[in-house]
Structures are given as C-alpha cells and as structure tokens.
Amino acid sequence: MSRPGVSLAVGALVTAVLAAAAAFGPLPYVVEQPGPAVDVLGSYDGETVIAVTGADVSASAGKLLLTTVRVQTEVTLGDAVRGWFDDDRAVVPRSVVYPDGQTGEETDARNAELFRGSQTSAVAVALRTLKNQPAEQPGISFGVDEIGGPSAGLMFTLGIIDKLTPQDLTGGRIIAGTGAVGDTGAVNPIGGIPQKLRGAEAAGAQLFLVPEGNCTEALRNVRPGLTMARVATVEEALTAVATFTGGGVPEPC
Questions:
Q1: Average pLDDT over residues 19-39
Q2: What pLDDT digit, counting tens, does each position of 103-113 carry?
Q3: What is the pTM of this model?
Q4: Domains of the chain, with CATH numbers?
Q5: Known catalytic residues?
Q6: What is d(CA 136, CA 211) in angstroms, rounded to the nearest whole number?
C-alpha cells in the first residue's frame, strides 16, 4: 500500500475508534425534550398542585397547564445524532444547563431554590391582583416539587386566581403557558420554548401564553392549532385568557 494510502487508512481507523468511544461514553452536551404538562388546577402524582385552605375554592371545567422541559444529561453519540434529527429534541452544550462549571447537584439545588421562589412570588402577585387584605389571606401550598427553575410562576399565579374567584377563568378550555413572574407582576422570559410548545400541543392545549421576551423564538416554533398570545404582565395574561375564552383573538407574538 502506498504511503498516502496508509495515511488514509490510519486516519480512518483513528476516526472509527474515536467515534466508537464517543458512542459508548458521554458527550459534553445535553438533550432537551418536552417534559410533562401539569394542570395547576388538578393533581400531580396524587398530590393537589395548588392547595388552598381558609377560603372557598371554585371548580373549573378547563385546565391551566404549566409546561416543562426534560433534560437528558448523559448523552452518547447515538443520542446526539437522534436528537439532531428529531424536531422534539434539542442538543445543546452542557454548559448551557450547568453554567460556570457547576456540578449537577449545585445546579439542581439552585433550580429548586428558584422554583420555591416562583411559588412565593405567585402567591404574592395573585393575592395582590385579587386585592386580598393580609387578614383575609388564605393558606396556599403546592404539591409538586419535581420541577426546577422559575418558569412555572405565571401558571401558578393564574391557578391561584382561578381557584379564589367564582368565575371559571379557563372557560372550559385547555390553556398552557410559561414565564417567570416578578414581584411587580411582570412576566419574564425563560428557556425551552420549543420543547414547551410541543409539550403543550401534545397535551391538547388550545392557547399558549408566551412571555414577550420569548416571542421571537416562539414564532420560529409555531405549532398547528395552538394559538400563541404575547404577555408581558400577569394582567395581560388575564386579558389574553379572557379574550380567548370569549371567542376573540388575544394579542399575538
């Protein structure tokens, strides 16, 4: 065999060995895919998602879905290839999910803290929206703790408002959404919009509440039959839901 032929053969062998090693070992990537869509008006794993004590609670015919992203942290070459050809999945650098060299445990702890904060903010914003006085505040607790990050804040807020008002906020429809809620009631952008839209679609959602800052990304991931409404505040989210359930078209992205 000529020297160029030997070089090519050696190069091909090295490439094959590296590819085989990558196929059986983890890559510096994670795969994001749609996670469960949880009805905040119902239960999850046998626990009431939003439990209210000390106040009358109304029932709703529809659903308010918080949307999630499931992250696969151990990714082989085969996983990555499948992810690149699957529209429901996104292959992203591990540093996106675990920034600044954080360990998985550190990131999980931080996300759990943000999730608890989203619940605290949701209670404060919901009660202020309802204009409850401190002496009249009901007890509100949450029965779901497997979700990390702040992005459930908007749907938690709407769920509390729906439970504490006689009217059915959902109008019998299935409404999904996402967004972190600040103490002022602002709805802030989050990650994972493509996977959350797909998860909402799979759960039968008819309306998706999109944080204003996520609209550009959402428009690149439109799902057939799923109306998207742009919201920048909790008040705008309530308006969008009322418009949609009343037969109108809410403010689009």
A1: 77
A2: 778 888 888 89
A3: 0.85
A4: 34-74+104-245 (3.30.230.10)
A5: 151, 196
A6: 31
